[in-house]
Structure prediction request, 129 residues.
Amino acid sequence: MRPTIDQQVTFLYTADLEKTAVFYENILELPLILDQESCRIYRVSEDAFLGFCQHLEAAPPSKSVILTLVSQEVDRWHTYLTTKNIFIEKTPQLNEKFNIYHLFLRDPNGYLVEIQTFLDPLWPQAKSE
Prediction:
């Protein structure tokens, strides 16, 4: 039997921690859980976290990195983000190939951020907090 995994954190590089903080704290309104001066870690959901660090080796944002936030309220996110003057790279739409409904935007670091709903009933539902 494998050992348990209790939480998940994804760390990404940022050249501008303050600008990144404004986006994730004020625009997406993710709670700041830990400020380590050169890294900031945000709670995305009950046991999932996202960290941005200036001390990591700089690399350009890859087209292969997509930060996906799962929400049943994609259209509400679209409305909310546009009221914050965030450019929506791809407006909400159905992706039949993957059976999802989603939108895309970019964070201040150039990372592609997707907000999506899985339409497949086999996708596990979020645990209530």
User: Anything to note?
Assistant: The mean pLDDT is 90. The radius of gyration is 15 Å.
